[in-house]
Amino acid sequence: MPGPEAGVTLGGREMGGPMSERRFEWGGLSADRADYVTAAEALAMLEVLAIAHTDLDVATELRDGAARARFARGGRWAVVSTPGSRWFSVETDTGHHTQLVDTTSSKDESARLLAVYVDIAEAYVRGDAAPARAGVLGGTALTVDVNGRPVVLTPSFGRRVKALFGR
């Protein structure tokens, strides 16, 4: 068995080197792609976007390979997370969420998408959410007005099943 300094052969190509230098890249994107946004770059973007929300409690961090920003006021909170490129999400204290998977976004598109997801979190925390039915599996979705556009935050699958069975 090769030692930790050996690379990995995938499809006839030698990949990696020492294990300490190899990284898993979400979606198969390599770090040398010109439009790739790293989690550290996304964290820097989140920190800049958070400056505009001085009336909210904002905490940013890198966790599990993703940049995260938690926006809160009182007991209400929403977390924006992204590994930099590929997917963007908002999760709320009520278990509602929205997510976008986009494996082809450029750095500029990723920055715009991140700003939109910060706006969604901010609108939710400020209390601009209205309940709505979440479809056949039950549960209540939340509609958040983000700059005049409705965004639907859906409950997790587990919450929808529990609502269906009245638990």
Q: What does this protein look like?
A:
There is one protein chain. With 167 residues, the protein is an alpha+beta fold. The chain has one domain. The protein contains 3 helices and 10 strands. The N and C termini lie far apart (51 Å). The model is unreliable at 1-32 (pLDDT under 50). The protein has an 8-stranded antiparallel sheet with strand order 3-4-5-6-7-10-9-8. Strands 1-2 form a two-stranded antiparallel sheet. Helix 1 (39-50) crosses helix 2. Helix content is 23%, strand content 37%.
Mean of residue pLDDT values: 76
Uncertain stretches = 1-32
DSSP helical segment count? 3
| Number of domain modules | 1
Number of strand segments: 10
- Main sheet? 8 strands, antiparallel
Radius of gyration: 19 Å
Q: Note the run of SSEs as H and E.
A: EEHEEEEEHEEEH
Portion in beta strands: 35-45%
Helix content: 10-25%
